[in-house]
Predict the structure.
Amino acid sequence: MPASASIVAISSETYARLLSLADQAPLECLTLTPRTLARAKTLGYNRIGQIRGTPANRLLADLGEERADELKRALYDFGMRQPSGD
C-alpha cells in the first residue's frame, strides 16, 4: 500500500446508512452511455437502489447482456456491488 494511502474503518450502521443514501441517488450519477441510461429509465429504473435491488437475471432480461454488464461495471466503479444472492 502506498505511504499516502490510509484505511478508514466505519461501523456497520454507518456503512448501511451511507449505502441507503447512495441507493437514493439518480442513475445519472453513474457513468453510463446515453443509450444505456435512456433504456434503463424507459424501463422505470431511475435510482441506483433500483438497479442494486434487481436480480442480475432480471436486469439481463430487461436490458440485454451488454447494458446489464455496463450497469454492473458502473456500480462497481461507483463503489457499490450488487447485493449477494442474485
